[in-house]
Give the backbone structure.
Amino acid sequence: MKVLLVEDEPDLGASIQQKLSKERYIVDWVLDGDEAWSYLQNNSNKYTLAIFDWLLPGLSGIELCKHLRLRNNPLPVLILTARDSMEDKVAGLDAGADDYLVKPFGMEELLARLRALQRRVPQFQPQHLEVGNLTLDYGNFAVTCQYPNGETKAITLTKKEFHLLEYLMKHPDVIVTRDQILNHLYTFDTERVSNVIAAQMRLLRRKLSKYGWDSCIETIPCMGYRFNPANAD
């Protein structure tokens, strides 16, 4: 299951991301509503669920819900907020939210509410991300390579390798810096050491190189990395 988490409180966002990742959710975490809307416009069909804080920099969680529903997007949305009045709950649900969770809350309740949302929308299934002839399978953390002769091979990746390749594939032909990758893939209290991205990149390339696909990840000196779809064809 792939979740878009929009939460501007760093500690809470990191805790939610870490908990959901342990439960094998794939989590994109962004800190403001404008960036979230950019993600939704470009990747809305990739997400199974969304978690929006009510008060955000840029677009609020309620405004994000309204934008989705105006475009007939059925993505299930859970709103997080400290507002607990009946009027606020009604306003959130009327804006298009599917459920409402008042802060502070326990992580087990959050997981239970996400499971309930999934049961309401059984048509949502794990999705794939395709760029060039590479396909990421969210169900088994594998990348499938299709060769010109029609042959396909699957490479099983670790969760970190999978998320790293996914992030690169979602930003084709764009140079992404080490800090951007670090902030997106790692929580604020784990594994944030100076060489972790370079080490993960080496491991990922080593696996891809066995199948001739490592050239799709380019190193841009003094800048970062770039995923080149032309090298994934």
